[in-house]
Each structure stands twice: as C-alpha cells, then as structure tokens.
Predict the structure.
Amino acid sequence: MLRIRSPWPAVTALVAGELQALSIADPWTGQAHGWLQVLSLALLVAVLRHAPRTDSRRHDAWRGFGLGWLFALAWLAGTFWWLFVSMHTYGGLDPVLAALAVFALAGLLGLYYAMAGAVFCVFASAAASRRRPVAAALLFAALWTLAELLRGRWFTGFPWGAGGYAHVEGAFASFAPLVGVYGIGFL
C-alpha cells in the first residue's frame, strides 16, 4: 500500500496548478503572466524531483502520476471555470452538477499530465537529474508538450488553457509565429 508521508507535495502541486491557471488570465485584470506560468511549472518539477522517493519505480510512478494529476486538476478546473457559468446560468443545470461536470472534465483531461508526471519520475531519478539537469529539463519539456498535444487533439480536442497562452506578451511572444502555442509551452 502506498502511503503519503507528507501532504506538502500534494498541496504544492495544487497551488502550482492554480498559479498556472492564474498565469493564463488573472481574474483582476484579465492579463496573462508568462513569468507566473514558468514559476508554476518550476514548482511542479521541484515537487516531482524532491518529494520523498522510494526504492520502487512503481511507487515513484504512482507518486508522479498523483502529483501531475493534482497539478492538472487545479490548473484545468481554474481555467475551465466558465463552463460552470455556461452549464448553470445559461443551461439551467443544477450548480452541484455543473461544478461536478467541470471537475470531471478537468480530472479526465488531467490524466495526460498525470502520465507525464509518472514517466518523468521514473526516468529522471533524483541522482540522474542532479548530474544532468539539462537532460531532465528536456525530458520534462518533451513529456509536457506531448501531454498538451494529446489533450488538444485526442478524444476531446479541447486545447483551452494551454500553457503557451500565458506568453502572449513577454519574452516568449516573439517565438509564437515560429513554433505556435505548443512550441512556446515546450520552451
């Protein structure tokens, strides 16, 4: 049985996910904040790399799966909040059911990022990533981009809130015509 030793990795993943949602469009000004998106992913990578490890790759995979899923759940639910308004206010759906539907969609789409977290934890062990941080960063970027592409194309085709949208202004904006939103997410 897998036991959680500390709640802090999970809490950090949830907070980082909410920061990711805020980075796309904060509720106060509606502006995107690319630096906040980078910070949110840095927090996720830190929690994936530094959460307590076990001697079992299977347990590391489950830990990465859970942390990646929590991050994505908070991020996607915070990004898809408008679906609640659409379903409840305009569609007449009970508010509890509308909220559950938003969380169900976020949870389902979060499985792509959970898989990315699992693979990252298995293949980027703490020792290897400390010796080769560039390789670990490239591995994470590749897995994250793959999850973004799968979410945007497979099953739902629902790319709303991709991380690259946080960079409509700022340092990465000039790359948009060259690599698109997914390429910016990789960068």
User: Anything to note?
Assistant: The radius of gyration is 17 Å.
